[in-house]
Write a structure and sequence with these properties.
The chain has 264 residues and is an alpha/beta fold. Helix content is 31%, strand content 14%.
Length: 264
């Protein structure tokens, strides 16, 4: 991007895919239009992109964008833990996905700082054709012939919202939060896949990936630091790690009857 808007691609991460290149082109155009603003604003702004807490989902449904899924009691503890963790930060803007689990996660942070909770549709979970179905190790759901037509292209992916579209909307949401908290800090509560996808883009990794290797645990914070309009660093913390069930931690081995996707 013009002006070095993101960190350089790691030498071993491979070339950009055509979809990555499409996002690059779109963001290059946006960068060119506000280049004057980039030169005139040099303050530091921090945007914390938070994943929601654990959801009450006893049936193990891949709920996606469906309404009616609220935080579990453990999820509320996670939300309170992160609110406590952020209590001393200079937060001036709190915004969340419209889904209940994200709103409920963000509320303690907003209340702790005496701020209204804003909503941004662009922070919503990624769309998925398997919403409402159950998936887990050993249950055979992905072996059903009726599902195979959705599994033809893992690079797009064919079963849900394209990674490119996730990047574009999430970058726009991050930029809006940055603008709302210029010179201070903002918190945006979203969902695992969109968070990991936009982080991968900013860190110049390919967008398609193994879901088991996402570094985006429940109630985690992926933190983007801006100098003016330019992202200069990305950080990651897990303030509620001790509350997260072991099988949901990044890199954990799958457990029969359980799936990381349920807490997306």
């Amino acid at each position: 991007m013009s002006g070095g808007n993101r960190p350089a691609r790691d030498a071993g991460s491979g070339a950009l895919t055509p979809e990555d290149s499409a996002v690059e082109a779109a963001l290059e155009r946006a960068a060119a239009m506000d280049e004057d603003v980039r030169r005139d604003t040099g303050e530091t702004t921090v945007v914390h992109l938070m994943r929601h807490g654990e959801v009450h989902n006893p049936d193990g449904v891949l709920y996606g964008r469906r309404s009616g899924y609220h935080l579990s009691e453990l999820g509320r503890q996670m939300a309170d833990r992160v609110a406590e963790h952020l209590s001393g930060r200079d937060i001036t803007h709190v915004v969340a996905s419209p889904l209940e689990r994200a709103q409920e996660t963000a509320m303690p942070i907003a209340k702790g700082h005496g701020l209204p909770l804003e909503t941004d549709e662009r922070l919503i979970e990624a769309g998925n054709v398997f919403e409402g179905k159950t998936f887990g190790v050993g249950d055979g759901a992905l072996r059903k012939p009726g599902n195979w037509r959705h599994l033809t292209n893992p690079f797009r992916p064919s079963w849900g919202e394209p990674y490119v579209e996730q990047v574009v909307r999430m970058m726009a949401a991050l930029d809006a939060a940055r603008d709302a908290a210029r010179g201070h800090e903002a918190v945006c509560v979203s969902h695992q896949l969109p968070i990991w996808t936009v982080r991968s883009f900013v860190e110049r990794r390919r967008l398609w990936h193994d879901p088991r290797r996402r570094q985006c645990t429940l109630a985690s914070l992926t933190t983007f630091t801006y100098e003016g309009n330019r992202i200069v660093s990305v950080g990651y913390t897990e303030p509620a790690r001790d509350l997260v069930p072991p099988h949901l931690l990044a890199g954990a081995k799958p457990v029969k009857g359980k799936s990381k996707a349920f807490g997306a």
